[in-house]
Amino acid sequence: MRLALALAALVIALTSAAEPRKSGIDYASAATQTLQKDDAQNPGMLWVKDGQARWTERTGAANKACADCHGEIAKMRGVAVRYPAVAMPSRDEPASTSSAPRVINLSQQINLCRVGRQRAAAWPAEHASLLGVEAAITFESRTLPIAPPTTPLLAVAQARGEALYNQRIGQIDLSCRDCHDGLAGKRLGGNTIPQGHPTGYPIYRLEWQTVGSLQRRLRGCMTAVRAEPYPYGSSELLDLEAYLMKRAAGMPLETPGVRP
Amino acid sequence: MASALITMPKAARAGDVIEVRALVQHAMETGYRRSSEGALLPRDLIRRFTCSFVEGTGQSVSTSDGSSKPGSRLVFAATLHAAVAANPYFAFHFRAERSGTLIFIWTGDNGFAHREQVNLLVT
Fold first, then answer.
1. Distance, in angstroms, between A74 CA and closest chain B CA?
2. Which CATH superfamily, name and number, covers A20-37+145-259?
3. Is A43 in contact with B87 (Cβ distance < 8 A)?
């Protein structure tokens, strides 16, 4: 009994370390918060507008627009909250891609549609149009809570991502957890270390002066601790994305977020 | 892939002072930065932003340069330089007296030109 109580206390102590969970915007200055809150000022809205234009633009050898299959973009409400998700193999996919079910993020899903349905070339990572369509789709889910699906394949990816999150890397020998759980709220140079919840992606980062993906942010952290960043689209970055979304489950999306 | 967002009321009462806000997508590359390979990134700036007002209702305004059209009145203008952040944002006030069209023009390096127009109904 005493052991059970001690265990319960330990569990409470461990889980309360990250509570209450805070979005990165809560740590930002009042000016940055205003920039995110006001759609007329938020530069991320330019990418959303661009993505909305792509949504109805016919392209590729199939001369199809996203809207031809999916209808109005407003129907994408609730879609972004569940990515990364498990993609089932589709007959529309080119034969070169894997035929097994696998975990993909929203930008990979957009490119699957582009290649498979529109018969157009996939956009490279961080392409402005890819970020635009991703931002426009995620914008439809703004204020909805992050809700990763519970599928065994995704659970495996989340577990691998958690292991990576806790793994010390780089010459500076830090794990994600060391800063974003252990030192969240404290200062690193001029900025406050956030808890690392991916609630606003794709985000407009003032340092970047442009919109970027969660993978760009993760790679930036890896470079900062002097580790070799995983390449865009690698399974490691995807596993980390899957774990971070699980870690942030229930928190509302704010896309397009603005961060310092 | 330039796009712009204009935020302003579509209608106003005569004499009202309305706020006009304009945000445009542009990298505003200073010409002083280097790429990760060390090469100097060429300067690419918006040089000028103008907003002018053309009186009259309807969608008839279609000239590419609203500021030189007879009957158009310059409302706001700015000259931009290398220290302006990417995606420049302007907010200014305008007294609505008659219905018409506000024309926003951004011009800059490498032939950059972007134009937006918004109709304003004054009652």
1. 20
2. Cytochrome c-like domain (1.10.760.10)
3. yes
